[in-house]
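thought: fold this chain, then report.
action: predict
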Amino acid sequence: MRTVDVSLKPQTLREARAYGRIRLKPQTVERIKRGEVPKGNLMEATKLSGIMGAKKTGELLPFCHPIEVDHVEIELKLGPDYLEAFSLVRGVARTGYEMEALTAVSVALLNVYDMCKGFDDTMVIEEVKLISKRGGKSEWWKELKGVKAKVHSENEELGRLAEEYLKKLGAEFSDNAQLYVSIGENIPAGAHLRGFESVVALYDFARSPSSVGKEIKVAKTDDFLIVVLPEDEGKVRFFFETFGGLLGHLL
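observation:
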């Protein structure tokens, strides 16, 4: 057993929304409205339970990464014979907040069950589901379909590795390339994309501080984009797995 390795993913803004419902007796709904639940203010306690559930998700689910939760909202709606819970969880992380949002509504509804079980034995928790999610690879990752690429490397193994990544991205290979990848040979060409290079360097330093001095270079001319990678398998894998999906935006 193991968790999914997200160490090479970039940290981006992500959010998720979830929904859940608990069926109640109409008399239970009326008691909640009148504030006659013996254990206290059910609506406020349920919101707090949902917030706490979102924050504790990584401790409850063994394969769910403990990630920083930057924002949680819990909204509750009472119907004639039910209570609905809506959650919004947001943060900057390497993986999404689906499980945090789902756990938030699940724990919120469990709190309703706990506070009402003494006088309602008909309660049923149902339809806990993810409503939406935003952020991450699905939003910013762009394939290279139709893009012509070329790889130059004296190291055949690393050259094949780069070509494999480019194939997965959908690139085609041609001498008349729009995207040129050079491994191990620093070929100055065009204007360096300093902002992009700085972001790559920052993530690269966090991954491997000892590799300072082997920076990845990215430059652009009117005709093509060039990426210069050190002759290092770890650097090649890091660049394509972390930033490969952004190359299409730079062309």
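thought: worth noting. The two ends are 40 Å apart (CA to CA).
final: tokens above.
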